[in-house]
Specification:
Helix content is about 5%, strand content about 50%.
């Protein structure tokens, strides 16, 4: 009887999700991005790896940054951006050298987000920068007190959060529209399809 009951429960329960290990990095992985049907990863080993998820194989390994790579972002035109400890942003096409290099931050870059207004970067120099990829210039958004760790576009606006425990909303001209106290330092920010935001941080909670 117990055997039949166990088999019945096993049939009703959803099957376990099987994970596929993509092995290739030589240290902690810090960033992920979806590039069409490919996956990009980057980490402390200074490498960016482009994977074929179906085969589990690395198709391309890029080593260009001088330090850990902390952030990746997919651009609307299919290219992608990377940034990290060396405070530089690189825009990548199909080649092994960056198509554009964007410089201006004085400290490591912790977060990237691509949106209709351009590419946003968050850095430990306390600034957010909104980059015009056509000209290579950036608006500098000031207001955070301490490291800025994450940026996201939602509802037609740019949002940022960081070590000061605030969530800020910016207009595209660089004007700070709102500032909300969210408590503990925040380390991650994600825009959902309905325009709302998810943040996570040092308190161990997702908001």
């Amino acid at each position: 009887m117990w055997i039949r009951l166990f088999l019945l429960l096993a049939a009703l329960l959803p099957s376990a999700v099987r994970a596929q290990d993509l092995t290739g990095h030589g240290g902690p992985v810090r960033a992920l991005a979806v590039l069409g049907d490919r996956l990009a990863s980057a980490g402390f080993d200074q490498a960016i790896i482009l994977w074929n998820p179906s085969s589990g194989r690395a198709e391309r390994v890029i080593r260009w940054h001088q330090g850990a790579v902390h952030a990746l972002a997919t651009l609307p035109d299919g290219r992608f951006a990377s940034a990290g400890e060396d405070a530089r942003l690189a825009i990548w096409g199909p080649g092994d050298a960056p198509e554009h290099i964007l410089e201006g931050h004085a400290e490591p870059i912790a977060g990237l987000a691509a949106g209709p207004a351009g590419l946003a970067s968050a850095a430990w120099d306390g600034t957010v920068r909104l980059w015009n990829l056509a000209t290579g210039t950036a608006r500098i958004l000031l207001g955070h007190q301490g490291n800025v760790n994450a940026v996201a576009f939602a509802g037609g606006r740019l949002h940022s959060t960081g070590q000061d425990g605030t969530l800020r909303r910016w207009d595209m001209d660089g004007t700070s529209l709102t500032r909300a106290e969210v408590g503990f330092p925040r380390t991650a920010l994600l825009a959902l399809p309905d325009g709302s935001l998810v943040s996570a941080g040092a308190d161990g909670h997702v908001h």
